[in-house]
Q: What sequence folds into this?
């Protein structure tokens, strides 16, 4: 199957504007701006069943339709802050297929009548930001951005903005705070960004991969997109495969492909001939799932992954083999979340501090069964009480790790 | 000396990205500009940025303290920031970091005797499939170095010594 998102794998040098144009590039944008009303664009995206690819999976067209038309101006923000252990798809899109992403962003802007968009990139993507700046300038030069697009009265500017190393800025309201020049701490919601976003104005925020889906949807139609994938999860997804597989990487597959297909066909199986012990299907914030044949044959879509005790999230599949101790895994993940907690809400700030204290003691061999019980207790006390998903999901590996891999913790506290 | 005098074009270009009434948004790019040469943000630069943006020095300092890529203390000319998060660690990043420490004769957080490199362990850099990897943060910005070995890293450090940031 040809790639829809990672098109550079089929078309060499698609990052060159002329090559992109020759392969149908910007036709969707021209069609939208010259022949469609903004609400028509939103309607097509809504009908396609496209869901947000940043992790939450919220229906994209529906989000766009929430934009508050009583308050102006409107903004669109691309979330390019990918920072979670296990996620590495957006950088490949931006570096290798930049125009499709930028065209999708422009289409979103037109759909919600925004004349300014910002791409918020994690600060570490310094080189990517400079590259996108070049591509934006090329689009302006060629008349695909700027004033009076295609001879209409619609104008659009896109700017890049670098963060500076804070995972929390991937949370949409923390991202907005950061873009406003403040510390990246989440806002209390509601109000949600489509009514109160950047500078207090209606704002649509989507992930890079989400925007990149939009041009082919406009070109080929909502029904075409819906015909790919599964009933509740339309289209394709980039699955980022990492950990103890022989060939980690980004693999674009239709929703509904199985974990077995991803790990054994694309990932070429497990390193050193070992077997899979567990997977984390959505990066470090995932539940740990005990792997058996049923799990391997589970379709990777939003609904099916729930049936095996996890969430698909951003589809960042971390593979753990039978040599990996789960107490070490949760110590690593909690180290990350403790470091990245923004400190605004007490359950996350204090909870992650204590979880790190306990996971370190358990993993280093100084813990007791009481410590394991206490750790589980702290994690469960945090659930449902944090201001944002960082705190909530920091507990997932801890709770599922202790409950599903008790033998690893018995071994750790005896050691 | 104000950034507006030393880097007038860059400051103007940065400010032009944001609505004039929301120029506080420019604090992060201005901080990158201020720390480009020295590798950290001086007290004078903090004051200067506060003045340009009509915010307090405390506001500026709170940004520096919150984000990991801003620094308020001098370190090596290059910060070598190695990702040791879970996916990288599953593919040998911890051992890579240990070996690098031995080769350079420094511990994590320390700077080589010649002042060239400060070795740091950092959180996820979103390159889990290309590990062991690290980024260098220095006068020429931030660069990724992927699929690294200790030998290749030592070659890179030699290149940095010679004033050439490219790997062989």
A:
């Amino acid at each position: 199957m040809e790639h829809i998102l990672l098109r550079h794998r089929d078309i060499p040098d698609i990052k060159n504007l002329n090559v992109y144009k020759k392969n149908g590039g910007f036709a969707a944008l021209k069609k939208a701006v010259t022949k469609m009303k903004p609400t028509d664009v939103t309607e097509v995206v809504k009908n396609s069943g496209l869901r947000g690819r940043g992790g939450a999976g919220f229906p994209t067209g529906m989000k766009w339709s929430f934009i508050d038309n009583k308050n102006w101006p409107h903004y669109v923000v691309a979330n390019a802050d990918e920072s979670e252990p296990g996620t590495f798809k957006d950088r490949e899109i931006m570096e290798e297929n930049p125009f499709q992403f930028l065209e999708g962003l422009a289409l979103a802007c037109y759909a919600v009548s925004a004349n300014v968009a910002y791409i918020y990139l994690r600060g570490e993507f310094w080189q990517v930001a400079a590259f996108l700046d070049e591509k934006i300038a090329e689009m302006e030069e060629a008349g695909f951005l700027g004033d009076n697009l295609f001879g209409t009265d619609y104008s659009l500017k896109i700017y890049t903005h670098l963060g500076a190393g804070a995972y929390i800025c991937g949370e949409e309201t923390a991202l907005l705070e950061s873009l406003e020049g403040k510390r990246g701490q989440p806002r209390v919601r509601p109000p949600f960004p489509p009514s109160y976003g950047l500078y207090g104005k209606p704002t649509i925020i989507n992930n890079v991969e989400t925007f990149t889906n939009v041009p082919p949807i406009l070109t080929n139609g909502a029904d075409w997109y819906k015909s790919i994938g599964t009933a509740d999860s339309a289209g394709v997804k980039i699955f980022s495969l990492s950990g103890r597989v022989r060939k980690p990487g980004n693999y674009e597959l239709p929703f509904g492909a199985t974990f077995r297909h991803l790990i054994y066909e694309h990932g070429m199986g497990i390193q050193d001939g070992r077997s899979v012990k567990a997977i984390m299907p959505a990066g470090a914030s995932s539940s740990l799932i005990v792997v058996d044949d049923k799990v391997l044959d589970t379709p990777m879509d939003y609904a099916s992954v729930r049936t095996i005790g996890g969430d698909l999230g951003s589809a960042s599949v971390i593979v753990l083999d039978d040599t990996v101790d789960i107490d070490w895994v949760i110590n690593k993940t909690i180290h990350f979340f403790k470091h990245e907690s923004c400190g605004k809400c007490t359950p996350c700030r204090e909870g992650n501090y204590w979880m790190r204290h306990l996971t370190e003691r358990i993993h280093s061999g100084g813990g007791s069964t009481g410590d394991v019980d206490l750790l589980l207790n702290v994690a469960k006390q945090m659930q449902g009480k944090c201001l944002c998903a960082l705190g909530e999901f920091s507990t997932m590996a801890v709770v599922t790790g202790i409950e599903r891999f008790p033998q690893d913790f018995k071994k750790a506290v005896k050691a | 000396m104000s950034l507006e005098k030393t880097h007038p074009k860059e400051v103007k270009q940065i400010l032009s990205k944001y609505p004039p009434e929301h120029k506080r948004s420019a604090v992060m790019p201005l901080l990158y500009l201020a720390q480009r040469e020295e590798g950290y943000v001086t007290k004078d630069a903090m004051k200067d940025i506060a003045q340009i943006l009509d915010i307090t020095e405390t506001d500026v300092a709170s940004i520096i303290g919150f984000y990991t890529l801003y620094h308020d203390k001098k370190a090596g000319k290059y910060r070598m920031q190695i990702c040791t998060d879970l996916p990288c660690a599953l593919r040998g990043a911890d051992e890579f970091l240990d070996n690098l420490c031995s080769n350079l004769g420094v511990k994590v957080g320390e700077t080589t005797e010649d002042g060239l490199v400060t070795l740091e362990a950092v959180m996820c850099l979103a390159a889990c499939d290309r590990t062991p990897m690290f980024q260098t943060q220095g006068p020429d910005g931030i660069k990724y170095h992927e699929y690294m070995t200790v030998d290749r890293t030592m070659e890179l450090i030699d290149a940095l010594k010679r004033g050439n940031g490219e790997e062989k």
